[in-house]
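User: Can you model how pantoate sits in this protein?
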Amino acid sequence: MAPEVINTVELMQAHAPGSRRAVVMTMGALHAGHAELMRIARERVGPTGELLVTVFVNPLQFGPGEDFERYPRTWRHDLDVCRQEGVDAVFVPVADDMYAQGRDITIDPGPLGGILEGAVRPGHFAGVLTVVAKLMNLTRPDVAVFGEKDYQQLVLIKRMVAQLNLRVEVVGAPTLREDDGLALSSRNGYLGESDRAAAAAIPAAISAAKRTASAGAGAGDVAAAATAVLAGRAGIVTDYVAVTDPELGPPPHQGPARILIAARVGTPRLLDNAAVVLGAS
Ligand code: PAF
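Assistant: Here's the modeled complex, given as structure tokens:
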């Protein structure tokens, strides 16, 4: 059955949940990674629950000169994906409606919002957290599922929900990958053929980091192993390689940690990350 399409804030506010509701928030350009988030969300609420997807390219999280205007908008395809995944309703507002009351009040992501992606994209996480909080208020979910691919975003959303006492369970979903290991992303569509080959260095760097960690190395050597892979490939410019603890703080001497990579391949910036266990052997 086709999902119900809700295209105004007013209609969304009037759309009362009949049962437990799970939400997957997206900017559209849906791919297999989003479909997986929808499946996980459905599992959380069961067949009698409501699965709601939001599709909104949020202007507040794009900086000047970023790809807001050319971000892929594929509404018909998105609706098809939602129908195939048994989504009950899709909320697809326009920006003038979402921000009709103004946009000068935003959520400050705190110090973690200023590192890594936040250092490269000032204001990005204030824009993300503000729209996520608005979408949570409008859709009132019991569960919201976000991909681990945008790991810093996921950590910040969890912190916001905890610190603002929002009544929603935030679930992180593992990253899906293409055959060559590249993490699925709506921005992969920007890559030409030669970019695509260069981009494969990113998952290769993640694999090198994992191998190095499981051989017993610490954060410095793990980061160096990933950096060396990226440095050895033409056509790729590394923005950062970071090893942190799972909450994005300083890495432990030993134990669970996260490697995060951002690199530019041509125009697009690609992100990847993975769990590693430092000094494991
Ligand atoms: O991850 C995304 O697609 C966006 O940042 C989100 C969470 C939908 C907010 O616009």
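A couple of observations from the model: The chain has a mean pLDDT of 96. The longest strand covers residues 255-264.
User: Helpful, thanks.
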